[in-house]
Amino acid sequence: MSTNWLKKTAAALVLCMMFTSVTACSGSDENSGTAEGTAEATAESTQEAEPVAKLGFIYNGSVEGMSFTADCNKQRIAAQQYSNIESVYIENVNVGDYEKAVKMLVEDGCTHIVSGSPVYSHAINPVSQQYMNINFIDYGSSTRSVNIFAYTESIYQGAYIAGVAAAFNSESEKIGMVVDPVMLYSVPCVDAAALGTQLVYSTSTLVLANARADGEIRKAVDALADMGCDVIISYTESAETVEYCNKKGIKVIGNLDYSENAGDYENLLMYFYSSRDSFYLSQYKAMQLGDWQPSSYMGTLGNGVITVSDALSAAKDGTQDIMNKLVPKVASGAAYIFDGQMKDINGTIKQREGVAMATSDILALNWYIEGVDLSLDSFIESKSTPDSSELVIKK
Question: Can you give the pTM of this predicted structure?
Fold first, then answer.
């Protein structure tokens, strides 16, 4: 039921095309039929082709362990193995060091720069104008420019499914959500999750707790549990929400890729995340063919970027049946999330009945819908970006 099959299908098609291309170009030439010609052809075919482009990824976090950044880096590696593209990365880059990281990667020979975090959204435009011969891929942007490819995601679709699953598995009808506000589209994700819970219980409440560092996340989880939240949804860079809920015996929904270790978490109901392998691969292939152009792309459930897992063993019977019906409808657009009358937490009508919110308005949401509880103070005390440190280019 997971949308991972779209990604795998895309990769398989690319491999098939690559194989067809190789066999089509291996016809006879003046050396064919001779031992010398065969040896030369074999030697030439086994030589590693010179990369046609080099990508430099800039990450705000660490690639180690379970994290949003680690997921991004795994996807970079997964896509790279199917293309003749070289890529490197610099991790733990704060916003103030973004320009320095770009300069290092350009001097290292990178022709394309990928900004791997939405925290760089305001830094990329002025920096990119200093390097008009370098192409940039801006994660979390919907506006392209002459040398910036705008890539963004409807991650709120995964949050909506998570809200439905959370409410169905709740006895208290009170769901907690731990959110790092620097994550992509944090407000739309909270609103979508709340709408998902209301699809199950019209009177449900989603309690928001903002947290970033692991210690802050633990305090947030404790506070949510004290308020009666019996299911908690994570939307953070860190995996600590799932780790801590598992230790505390609290049902939890993750926002990272747990496909390799979901069985280690007995309280994990399901998870959602962004799977960018196919997007990266399509970019790599365009670079190889020499027809890469700055454009705009939206990753969704429908094209396989937003991925929703099956219900796991901790989930209540019937959870998978609901997801089987809901996920295809959201993916196809038949179930539109931000549709109909909507009020904010003050009861003010923000959208009237019979209207569907435009995608641009969803991405720009800065108000919480009715049913979101903001009574918990923010637990954030840490800085939004890592301290300045020595930057190192890694493969």
Answer: 0.86
